[in-house]
Protein: Hypoxanthine phosphoribosyltransferase
Organism: uncultured Propionibacteriaceae bacterium
Amino acid sequence: MDDRDITGDLDRVLYSADEVAARLAELAAQIDADYAGKELLLVGVLNGAVMVMADLSRAMKSHVQMDWMAISSYGSGTQSSGVVRILKDLTTDISGRHVLVVEDIIDTGLTLSYLISNLLSRNPASLGIMTMFRKPEAARNAVEVGYVGFDIPNEFVVGYGLDYDGRYRNLTSVGTLSKHVYS
Ligand code: PRP
């Protein structure tokens, strides 16, 4: 879906599909270099990270393995609920593995804080974090995120995996949702 297909639903486009792809290529090269000689396990956080995972992994030149977790942190609205629980766990034993968590967005950082302590308790060889988008509140917290696509304003954004009520994930660009859609 292109932003021209949903004219009126977006206030503005923050990043075009080309801009997202270009930034992702830079991050992929950086990750390739940082993990050179190591077998990396990418852990995608469903559902939003599907697009990032698919594009990041294919932009990389190294072999990677992939696994998925599903964690609930949001309701169907626009606010983080603070509720974090595992809906689907990894199938891989990450003990002794080099793990890179792949997220679409870090908003409050609640999900990530939970995820980091949970995954560290499984004794990985290393644990890194990559997110395509990061909001200001998360940028202020102490969690170290090694790879950030874009720091974005504290607005409701959709596209490239980010949804509103299950919609807009398949938008190729990323934009701010018009208030009339959710108010
Ligand atoms: C989003 C996103 C992160 C989380 C970040 O997932 O993918 O996992 O919210 O928010 P936080 O920093 O405030 O915790 P969401 O729960 O919306 O599920 P989804 O990926 O299925 O859209």
Summary: The CA atoms of residues 12 and 175 lie 6 Å apart. The longest strand covers residues 64-74.
